[in-house]
Design goal:
about 280 residues; 2 domains; four-stranded antiparallel sheet; 8 strands; globular
Length: about 280
Amino acid sequence: MIVNKYDHFFESVKSFVLETHLAHPEDLQGLPQDQVLLIEKRYGISLPSALRSYLSYFGKQFKMLGYGYELNFTQKMIDYVMKEAEEEEHEVLLRIIDQPSIENVVDHKQYQVSEVLDLSKILLTSFIDHNGIFDFIECKDENPMVQHFEKLYDEKKGGLHGYGYHPGEWSFIGLFRHLLFESISWKFFDRRIMEENKEGLEKYDRMSIDKLEWSKYYLDKDVKDKWYNIKDEQRRNFYKIKQEFSKKMDVQTIETSIIMTVDEFEWAFLEHLRILGVNI
């Protein structure tokens, strides 16, 4: 039996979201191996190890509570997005193949498509209709960056000019960690009174994170005084510190293949806060 080294991480994610009531058991359903192989056959690709592991835990259905953020790489979503990309309105990959070059929307430089992308290994994974953004991964690394194509418009002539691409900020694993951070922060740092609708209140009240051993350090008075009840600027500073640490750990994961579980990552972050002088 081939062991996927990312299973340990996604097992910890599943345990975390169930223990904290961040998801119902029926909202977390994995795909059997034959359906994972069917995805590969349908799109003529070999799935990265990280995505293959994710699909085995969450690929049939994935729904998780959080504040304004959701990550969905299920089989249903992949099939939907790949179909959308083939529609006449988009024809994403065909348009890109026909482009003489493609713009990197971060550095705004033009590149030959073959220099920066292997279109034969691209799997489109999500789609934001109102601004024509398609998230995708290149199925060549075991933990690929989550990138996206976006529509570019000709300001002078009007109409669609072509597609640019964003090389991504997070790896697949890193993006998942970011989702967990958003959910944890939503519970710890957003006041219940800010929730204005019944559904939001139910989600907030349902999430139980206090019993986890590392969470008590977030709830400690000294930490609250620093991060919670003072000024928005200081709260934003916490978000910045956590995001920078998350990105640092993401680079470590990419370079060393060391994959921390949810608990290991949170303990490492608390140690990082101590180094920065936070009294915890």
